[in-house]
Design brief:
Oligomer: single chain
Helix content: over 70%
Structural class: mainly alpha
Largest sheet: none
CATH topology of the largest domain: Growth Hormone, Chain: A
Number of domains: 3
CATH superfamily of the largest domain: MFS general substrate transporter like domains
Radius of gyration: 22 Å
Strand content: under 5%
Number of helices: 17
Shape: globular
Number of strands: 0
Order of helices and strands: HHHHHHHHHHHHHHHHH
């Protein structure tokens, strides 16, 4: 009697139906809600900051709102895996949701800039937890074969937030009700916490009773605080010193963590070059950060666009990221390492091409290279995350998955700070004009080229046949 043929793997729409089967639909909705809460808060707040500054007499503190959020994001994000192991994923997500709501309420009710900034730090810390816990939820609630599509859908949420954020923030700002943004986000965070109670399974029995490594966390906080401050400090010498000192403190923190028995970050996972994978995440994120920060101002000079028009040109990056990520999410295992390499190469091309197009005042070329930048992330990040998560055993999957967020957050913080130093060295702090446009473009965005090159080298290393990428679960 002939043996039965194996059941063919689902294709097309059947793959998406399979993703939602087995009770995974509500879990996916929870993950996407968490992505939205973090993305919308970080993107909409930038739009309403002029209204906040006018209402709270806080124009001089604009930069600190962003740096405080970033410091909380990285420091708390580094402990997301530990938190999930310590109290369980469900309790950790509930705690992060209510903490985010508290931060929003602090900013919404702030009578002055001090409480507003404190609320932004709390929001950043909660966002770091939520961001890291989303990766943990992906690892624990979805089979490995579905991870590229889950990553792609999360990217789509960020794309929607990028497109809708300026509009949403503008509506509240024009209505003279900027506080309403934070009341709205507080309600969404409470919804996230409540949904976590119902949708996340009860905690497993192997929760850790380890204590948080406070010395390591303190060094991370000092390092990221110095780096974030470098991005909002004028001049060149002081920011350079803060940036150098911050990076040194982070290096010491991670060296201590690597030698610790109670480490925040996971150990090497078998033959898979885990450190290279995290480095690729870190370096490419650092390379891509400056575009969204500085391109809107530069486009208003190079292409004589309005602020809104420039914002939507910049949104091409997010749109390309989303479309490419969804398009390639079903790629075969054979193609995945190639897509990681092609994606990081596209990020490098974007970092080179965008300053060139700004220099030549070509709006079309800027849009094309913005698509290269976003498409590169969309082509590579989902498969990189799938392989990182798939390389861990059950005991280390929680911290290992959450560490993806740590690598990306740290890359974003350092990339933004270095771009700020480069831009100010080129004269951005004294005002942007046709005279210094080229120098600022290379100083802010071109300075990310070494990071992009490091990301490409990492991707090539991951694809080497001698150390093949592990098959997803």
């Amino acid at each position: 009697m002939d043996s039965p043929s194996p059941t063919p793997a689902p294709t097309g729409f059947a793959v998406w139906r399979d993703l939602l089967a087995g009770g995974r639909g509500p879990a996916l909705a929870l993950v996407l809600l968490g992505c939205w809460v973090v993305a919308a808060d970080s993107l909409v707040t930038a739009t309403i900051m002029p209204s906040v500054g006018a209402a709270l007499d806080g124009y001089a503190w604009f930069g600190w709102a962003g740096s405080g959020f970033m410091t909380g994001l990285v420091v708390a994000g580094a402990s997301a895996g530990w938190l999930a192991e310590r109290i369980g994923l469900r309790a950790a997500m509930i705690l992060s949701g209510f903490t985010f709501a508290l931060g929003c309420l602090m900013s919404a009710a702030a009578p002055g800039i001090a409480l507003f900034l404190a609320g932004r730090v709390v929001q950043g810390a909660a966002a770091g937890w939520i961001g890291g816990l989303i990766y943990v939820a992906m690892a624990l609630l979805f089979p490995g074969r579905h991870l590229p599509r889950v990553f792609a859908l999360c990217t789509a949420v960020w794309g929607i937030a990028t497109l809708a954020g300026p509009l949403l923030g503008g509506v509240f700002a024009d209505a003279g009700f900027w506080r309403g943004v934070f009341w709205l986000f507080a309600a969404q965070a409470v919804l996230f916490a409540a949904a976590s109670w119902f949708l996340v399974p009860p905690p497993a029995d192997h929760r850790t009773d380890s204590t948080l490594p406070l010395p390591t966390m303190a060094l991370i906080a000092l390092g990221i605080g110095a780096i974030a401050t470098a991005g909002v400090t004028g001049g060149l010498a002081v920011p350079a010193a803060l940036l150098t000192g911050g990076v040194a403190l982070l290096a010491v923190a991670f060296a201590i963590d690597r030698a610790s028995k109670n480490a925040l970050l996971p150990r090497r996972s078998g033959a898979f070059p885990l450190g290279i994978a995290y480095l690729t995440y870190f370096a490419t994120t650092a390379a891509g950060t400056a575009f969204a920060l500085y391109a809107p101002a530069m486009l208003q000079i190079s292409a004589r666009l309005s602020a809104l028009e420039a914002g939507y040109v910049v949104a091409i990056e997010a749109l390309a990221w989303t479309l490419v990520s969804l398009s390639v999410s079903g790629a075969s295992a054979r193609w995945q390492p190639r897509l990681i390499m092609l994606g990081t190469a596209a990020i490098l091309a974007g970092n080179i091409g965008i300053p060139l197009s700004m220099e030549r005042e070509s709006l079309f070329a800027t849009g094309v290279f913005a698509a290269f930048l976003g498409g590169g992330f969309g082509m590579s990040y989902a498969f990189l995350g799938q392989q990182v998560i798939g390389s861990f055993d059950d005991a280390s999957r929680t911290r290992g998955s959450a560490a993806i967020g740590t690598a990306r957050n740290a890359g974003g913080a350092i990339g933004a700070a270095i771009a700020g130093v480069g831009a100010n060295a080129a004269g951005f702090g004294e005002g942007l004009s046709n005279a210094n446009l080229s120098a600022v473009a290379w100083g802010a965005i071109g300075i990310g080229i070494p990071f992009a090159l490091a990301g490409l080298i990492g991707a090539i290393r991951l694809a080497r046949p001698a150390t093949p990428l592990p098959a997803p679960a």
